[in-house]
Amino acid sequence: MDDRPNYITPAGYAVLSAEYRQLLGEERPKLVDVISWAAGNGDRSENGDYIYGRKRLREIDRRLGFLARRMKAAKVIDPAAQPDRSRVWFGATVTIADVDDMGDNAERILTLAGDDETDATAGRIGWNAPIARALRGAAIGDVRRVTLPAGERSYEVLAISYP
After folding, report:
1. What mean pLDDT comes out for the span 114-121?
2. Which neighbouring-strand residues pair with 151?
3. Is 97 exposed, middle or buried (0-12, 13-18, 19+ CB in 10 A)?
4. Which one, out of 75, 113, 123, 132, has a CA that is 20 to 30 A from the CA of 161?
């Protein structure tokens, strides 16, 4: 992987852990039973249950390996325990305004979350996203310049809150 720490909230870690337990404890054993049953039916070359089951088992094993690596590298940080709430750090919910475009969509609310718990529709961006990197350490009133795929933009920090 890379050298950056995999910061994650306690809730995000719980989601990864729950998916791992569900795949390992429920889905994989059921699939192994289906594959065993299908293998006992004879010709495996035209046995759809066997072929699909083996393919799905490889997918599950790959996902289990990925989840295990991410959980091992995870550094769980509770945003509510942030000592410096006057600046933007991990877990902060930030209201920013696009200085370059003061139209109707100029204000955005973003939460800096772990890279494994991003959700653009909910406003959760990864800690290592370009805009999150630019906002790190910013205080209310600071203007930060961000290089995005669409070009450079300037954002002013209007509000900072923590859970």
Report:
1. 90
2. 148
3. middle
4. 75
